[in-house]
From TrEMBL:
A Pfam short name: AAA_lid_11
Gene3D superfamilies tied to this protein: Region D6 of dynein motor
Domain of life per record: Eukaryota
The name this protein goes by in its record: Cytoplasmic dynein 2 heavy chain 1
Length: 110
């Protein structure tokens, strides 16, 4: 089979879609990290094989509330996206639950 060009996808998302919008080098590194984590053959293969979808450090890549379908149907994936909660829970990004309080403290001290 063909080898999927993940570097092309990363470049497209990082440069074409977000290029020029991210002017902070730290934010660009974070975007790059997310692209490597969520747009990879490792993630896709573990998802399709029913794996636990764990990151390199052993933690889950997706929170337990999010489960990718084992199909190629866009409608199945659309259903997952449409059923996500409205609020962006910190756990979805691998952050601790109390991160908002920390953020509020930093903002108020500034």
């Amino acid at each position: 089979g063909k080898i999927f060009q993940w570097d092309f996808v990363h470049g497209l998302l990082e440069s074409a879609i977000y290029g020029g919008r991210i002017d902070n080098p730290s934010d660009l590194r974070i975007l790059s990290s997310y692209l490597e984590q969520f747009f990879s053959a490792r993630l896709l293969s573990s998802s399709l094989s029913g794996g636990q979808r764990r990151s390199k450090g052993g933690g889950r890549i997706f929170p337990s509330q999010i489960s990718l379908p084992n199909s190629c149907s866009i409608m199945d994936y659309r259903s997952v996206v449409e059923n996500l909660p409205e609020d962006d829970r910190p756990a979805f990004f691998g952050l601790p639950a109390n991160i908002e309080r920390s953020s509020q403290r930093i903002i108020s001290s500034q």
